[in-house]
Amino acid sequence: MNIVLVDDVQETLDTLEMMYRWHTGVRVVGKAKNASELWEILGTRQVDVVSVDIELGGQNGLDLCQEISHRYPKVFIVVCSVEDSEDNRRRAAQAGAKLFLGKPVARGDVGRMIETYRQAAGSSLRRDAVDSAGKDDDLINLLNGLSRS
Question: Is 53 exposed, middle or buried (0-12, 13-18, 19+ CB in 10 A)?
């Protein structure tokens, strides 16, 4: 799992990176302090998960979530913020976030996020396999029909 962390506080980026690296199969492939840095990373690296803070200096992390969701619909978005309220959780979900982690983030929260992502990714892979199987059957039937003619 490749993850990008987005937060305007360097200490938070470093702490989250350390927490994610404790988990097998998780690679922090980028850290961004703003949207410009994030777009640069997303344009050059394979990314599965983006963790975004709500407040990014003068930028709104929820607006960024919405844009990520629009541009990269397969990316799993996590909002990670000290502004943990029901309203912010609802707004994050509406913006495309799949999970909300309130700060301070504990190691167990990171583990829960990874498990939630893996379940979602596994579900998506199974759906894709079913879709592909149906297409393969259609192709086989078409080819069998051609070989009989």
Answer: buried
pTM of the model: 0.81
Q: Which class would CATH give 2-148?
A: alpha beta
Angle at 85 between CA 81 and CA 91, to 5 degrees: 80
The residue among 139, 105, 122, 116 whose CA lies nearest residue 14 is 105
**pLDDT tens, 42-90?**
999 999 999 999 999 889 999 999 999 999 999 999 999 999 999 999 9
For the chain, the domains span 2-148
Angle between helices 107-148 and 10-21 (to 10 degrees): 60
Q: What distance in Å separates the CA atoms of residue 63 and residue 84, rounded to the nearest whole number?
A: 17
